[in-house]
Amino acid sequence: MVRVLVDMNLSPEWVGCITGAGFEAVHWSTIGAGNAPDAVLMRWARDNEHVVFTHDLDFGILLAHSKEERPSVIRTRARDLSVNHLGLLLVGALPAHADALERWALVTVDEVRSGIRILPILPV
Q1: Phi first, then psi: what are they for 2, rounded to 5°?
Q2: Average pLDDT over residues 78-98
Q3: Class of domain 3-118 (CATH, top level)
């Protein structure tokens, strides 16, 4: 079962959207400090077996530099980050990519396309 940690840069409303679709979700604001470094959030997600959902492109960079196999990350590049706009895309991506997310992947979800990379991200 995919469990999602929603990053501070996304609304807590995402928790209701994700749990309403049958997945577990928690917003970072209920766990840690709002100004915590991304590495702290990533460590918590890894230790607690959660997938990070974020709008922050730095998480892909963190994964590449750390060479860690966890946690998986779902990132969106959309301009409109509202649940009303992206909710169906995210809720569709969770079961569609569940196997990869459980094995550790970087999944990108936006209005135009969806992409996936299996971790760890190694230099070419």
Answers
A1: -75, 130
A2: 91
A3: alpha beta
